[in-house]
Amino acid sequence: MKNIAVLTSGGDAPGMNAAIRAVTRSALDEGMTVFGVRQGWQGLVDGQIRQLNARDVGGIIQIGGTFLGSARSAEFREEKGRSKAVRNLAQLDIDGVVVIGGNGSQTGSYMLSQLGVPVVGIASTIDNDLLGTDISIGSDTAINVTLEAIDHLRTTGSSHNRAFLVETMGRDCGYLAMMAGLAGGAEVISTPEFEVPASEIAKRLHAAYERGKTHAIVVIAEGVKENAARIMAYFDAEKQKSGFELRATTLGHVVRGAPPRAFDRLLATRLGVNAVKSLSAGLTGVLVGWQKNEVTRTPLADIVGRTKPVDTELLELARILAK
Ligand code: F6P
Question: Over the stretch 197-210, which tens digit does the pLDDT of each residue have?
């Protein structure tokens, strides 16, 4: 393998830059030429591809997002778009592609590998809903940012006898909300896997108030049907008295754009280096992930179109500990 391309696709994640750096520099070390594709799959279709050297990826390990840019591409989902992408790769004599991204992106990787292009995926999404990895790049930082927000809200909540609803990202997966809620000692955690209705939230807040708490935190995952706005509307309409005054904060993209913490930089570095090793070893159609404390490779065919379930036992633990 002489020439490889690297791209980031889907929602950006803290640590993507560290992964691009690891891919680029380890490939250069193996004597390969490296190309960076701008704007994910869309850039591959449009031919936005340029050579990367060691200096191009300098000074980025600590920066969130992706300096290559990312996009969700409707064109690549069509056969015509994929054929264009394959032609663009052939024109530059690129014989391997590394794709850094989550579920949708790795479905793209699988499709490209089915067209005969050697492809290796790197697990990266703050949602941590990708099979083939225990943890994906970006997720730990997103948990920490959510946790920091929870800690701040708890402090001001205590000063004013308030309860806070904190809504965090995660698409249809409750992992981020569950982990940040558990680490932040939340009174209630509501996720798509275990949704807590507004009426039950009101009951639990009231009980917490009666037990003498001076604050309460309710963590809501983005994917629940009764999101923070609806819960607030319920409390307004029912003139619910939970004891606390209730306020809501939606974190949204704040949790995605943060600088990567050490864990994500190290994970991205390990996975990036291994992705290049996989391509050199002639492995294709695999996802490089992190399972049971080591780097693993899982066939993309086994993971695409499915999502990793969250551990609902941890949710039960959070409920027990919210005494
Ligand atoms: O998949 C990552 C993620 O941040 C999800 O948590 C969220 O639902 C989605 O992307 C938001 O996507 P966009 O930035 O395109 O609105």
Answer: 999 999 999 999 99
Residue of the CA atom closest to atom 6 of ligand 1:
170
Q: State the CB neighbour count (10 A cutoff) for residue 91.
A: 10
Amino acid at 204: R
Which of 105, 172, 256 to mutate for ligand 1's pocket (most ligand atoms within 8 Å of CB)? 256
- Among residues 70, 102, 100, 110, the alpha carbon closest in space to that of 308 is found at 102
For residue 315, pLDDT beyond 90: no
- Domains in the chain, start-ordered, CATH in brackets? 3-138+260-302 (3.40.50.450), 142-256 (3.40.50.460)
- Active-site residue 127, yes or no? yes
Residue of 8, 66, 107, 126 to test ligand 1 pocket, by largest number of atoms within 8 Å of CB: 126
Tell me how far apart the alpha carbons of residues 217 and 170 are, in angstroms, rounded to a whole number. 18
Give the model's pLDDT for residue 37: 98
Which pair of structure tokens corresponds to residue 202? 């009101």
DSSP track, 143-185 = HHHHHHHHHHHHHHHHHHTEEEEEEE--TT--HHHHHHHHHTT
**All residues at 6 or more sequence positions from 27 whose CB lies less than 8 Å from its CB, including other chains:** 4, 34, 276
- Residues 148-167: tens digit of each pLDDT: 999 999 999 999 999 999 99
